[in-house]
Design goal:
By secondary structure, this protein is of the alpha/beta class. Helices cover about 45% and strands about 20% of the residues. It is built from 14 helices and ten strands.
């Protein structure tokens, strides 16, 4: 699955088969999984932000979650799994995977460790459990990313670092775009849009000027800007042309990334899953969901769009079972656990 070479260790026998970690921008999930696919213990915490705090501190921040998951599973102290499968946001480049892998291995949580960008976890959750998987995944949460697997283990991926790597999309960019148009609508530089009232109203404010001031002066935390994405979709549903254009642009970005990945992997000519996930896509907003499917039908007619709503840690756990050569029953049991929510 395009993962980095594992770090080996021989100290202490394992007590669980897989320690699965899915660390996103805003939240991190940890799960201990037994050899039969049973979920033994879980924990949830905040986001994984190596660009902000540094790789070592980001990895260290996982320790309390791992300990909590181990205690929930009935273990005394940190676990010793056979394998640690970590799917991490903000680990976008192979060089970053190489940096984080030994840091995770040094924690002593597992005999072996693999690290991948969290988009590979989404992809694994959306493909079958038998045979060599092929497909493309687009994750659209706080940001946007895409990864794909082709025949013979070929991979397609994007730097996904933001504007400097040609990216636009996700909740962060949707909120910024909505703010931009709303501000210009209020002061007369842009076309009218209902966003100019809907966005400040979300925070109990009267005008865009009030919202701009509150954000600039720190009275509203910058992290709360992501709350504006659902308001954007609500305004778009009402027929507002500006809001609908922003949603259409998001659909364009999703399908462009997916189509480019399919092309690079030479998968356009065969039935191939296109796995869609992350908070923005998993919400299944009708305007966005319908437009993504329309564009895929035009540009990649054999693509099979699949929206994944299960917790992303499922993908990391499945990758761990792959590594352990687990039986089919273990996959079924794991998937059934997360299907129950």
């Amino acid at each position: 699955m395009g993962l980095k070479q594992s770090q080996e260790s021989t100290a202490h026998p394992p007590r669980a088969s897989v320690l699965a970690v899915d660390a996103g921008n805003s939240k991190t999930d940890v799960a201990l999984v037994g050899p039969d696919g049973a979920v033994l213990g879980t924990a949830r915490g905040g986001g994984f932000q190596p660009p902000v705090v540094g790789a070592e501190a980001a990895v260290a921040s996982l320790a309390p979650l791992v300990t909590r998951a181990a205690r929930a599973a009935g273990f005394d102290g940190p676990p010793r799994a056979e394998h640690v499968a970590a799917c991490l946001a903000n680990v976008d480049l192979p060089a970053e995977e190489e940096q984080v892998t030994p840091l995770l291995a040094a924690q002593g949580w597992g005999a072996t460790v693999t690290v991948a960008n969290d988009t590979f976890g989404l992809l694994r959750a959306g493909v079958a459990d038998d045979g060599a998987p092929t497909g493309v995944a687009v994750v659209c949460g706080a940001g946007i990313n895409c990864a794909g697997l082709g025949h013979g283990g070929r991979t397609a991926r994007f730097p996904a670092i933001g504007r400097i790597s040609g990216d636009w999309g996700g909740g962060g960019d949707l909120s910024k775009e909505a703010m931009w148009w709303a501000a210009r609508a209020e002061d007369g530089r842009g076309a009218p849009t209902a966003l100019a009232r809907a966005l400040p109203e979300h925070f109990g404010l009267a005008t865009m000027y009030d919202l701009i001031e509150a954000l600039h002066l720190g009275r509203i935390a910058p992290a709360r800007r992501h709350e504006l994405a659902p308001r954007l979709f609500a305004v778009a549903d009402s027929g507002d042309e500006i809001a609908r254009a922003i949603v259409a642009r998001q659909a364009e970005e999703v399908v462009t990334m997916a189509t480019v990945a399919l092309t690079r992997l030479e998968l356009l000519g065969e039935q191939t899953p296109v796995v869609l996930g992350g908070g923005v896509l998993a919400a299944r907003h009708p305007l966005l969901d319908d437009r993504v499917r329309e564009l895929l039908a035009e540009r990649a007619p054999k693509a099979e769009p699949r929206v994944i709503t299960a917790p992303p840690v499922l993908g990391a756990a499945l990758l761990g079972l792959d590594r352990m050569g687990a039986p089919a029953a273990a996959y079924a049991r794991l998937r059934a656990h997360y299907a129950r929510g």
